[in-house]
Amino acid sequence: MGAYILRRILLMIPTLFGIMAISFAVIQFAPGGPVEQVIAKLTNQGGSDRLGGGGGDAGGSNFDVAGDVSSKYRGAQGLDPEFIKKLEKQFGFDKPPLERFGMMLWNYARFDFGNSYFRDISVLDLILEKMPVSISIGLWITLLSYLISIPLGIRKAVKDGSPFDVWTSGVVIVGYAIPGFLFGIMLMVLFAGGSFWDWFPLRGIVSDNWDQLSWPAKIADYAWHMTLPLTALVLSAFATTTLLTKNSFLEEIRKQYVVTARAKGLSERQVLYGHVFRNAMLIVIAGFPGAFISAFFTGSLLIENIFSLDGLGLLGFRSVVERDYPVVFANLYIFSLLGLFVGLLSDLMYTWVDPRIDFERRDI
Fold it and tell me: Which residues are CB-contacts of 224 (< 8 A; sequence separation ≥ 6)?
């Protein structure tokens, strides 16, 4: 197992390099970079009369005719080329792309993500600041979806073809078909002061006076704020796991060892939980780390925006819109690295659930 783990870790290096290289290349052709973002903000505020105070300059240069440098950027006509060069140097665009990419990889290998372009804070501190919200959402969604999916999937497998199985399948399929963000908007309209009831708050995971509340009141306030976002996410999160659990149990129930166990006089409960459960739950349990990572970031992206939850999903969205590349690439790097390790962890969980599995004897 040690050799297998080592090979998987070594394979992460070219995989991570490919992800970052492709993303970096795509960014080079994306319009509206950070320099253009600054230019747009400056020109929207009235042009040169607001850039450097009353004298109408920026960095000590007069705003005469734009040269070749400023002509590279949309909206830069009329701005001083020296000012544009200073912006390029500030954001690191005065260096060739390959040199910037090499510096980025070297820094990221040491977990040095630099500072945000538009926030006065380091990228790592910014991510750590937003992480508790996303971890909270990811943990609750994963826990709730598994607590609902596994018992429901087992029940559906036992009652396969019955009216219970049919109508619950309809509910699961409808829930899976409805996008989480659309269901979240519907919940807001119904229960968060839209056209109907005003029962739940619209933003944040706690109230402004949360620090002043007692511990029971804090728990109640947290649950009150998280009810709508979690409901919107759970609806689609539990569907896949439910059907996966059902199909896994059905496959195991039809095998010969189950017939043998029943022939020996074991009760249905003993057969189901003493023999079938371990084999059927292999794929479900092994997928737990991946499900958590998915709920931790990807699944909560739109929900964080809808309910104004200040987590990594909202941070990533705003960073892309603002072209805050250090934050964008740091998020991509960290979660790509996490995803690769989670894939390895999922394989290790297979061996933990079923020691008969040996990856040492398999090719990668």
Answer: 200, 201
Residue 333 reports pLDDT greater than 60: yes
Express each pLDDT in 192-221 by its tens digit: 876 778 888 877 788 878 888 888 888 888
Cβ atoms of 141 and 295 closer than 8 Å: yes
Residues 293, 338 contacting (CB under 8 angstroms): yes
52 Cβ contact partners less than 8 Å away, ≥ 6 residues apart = 58, 59, 60
Domain ranges for the chain: 35-109, 123-361
For residues 298-314, give the mean pLDDT. Answer: 76
Q: Is the dihedral of CA 49, 51, 55, 58 positive or negative?
A: negative
The pLDDT of residue 361: 59
- Only one residue has tokens 């095998």, namely 255
SS3 192: strand
Q: Does residue 44 contact residue 37 with C-beta atoms inside 8 Å?
A: no
Give the residue carrying structure tokens 């372009």. 117
In the structure encoding, which two tokens stand for residue 292, read together? 């958590």
Which tens digits make up the pLDDT trace of 45-77?
444 343 333 333 333 333 333 345 545 666 566
Q: Does domain 123-361 have CATH number 2.40.400.10?
A: no
The DSSP 8-state label assigned to residue 198 in this structure reads B
Q: What single-letter DSSP state applies at residue 115?
A: B
Q: Do the beta carbons of residue 99 and residue 262 sit within 8 Å?
A: no
**CA distances for 46 relative to 40, 52, 110, 171, 284, angstroms:** 10, 12, 42, 55, 58
SS3 122: strand
CB burial class (10 A; 0-12, 13-18, 19+) of residue 14?
exposed
- Asked if 95 contacts 83 with a C-beta cutoff of 8 angstroms, the reply is no
Specify whether the CB–CB gap between 134 and 341 falls below 8 A: no
CA distance 273 to 270: 5
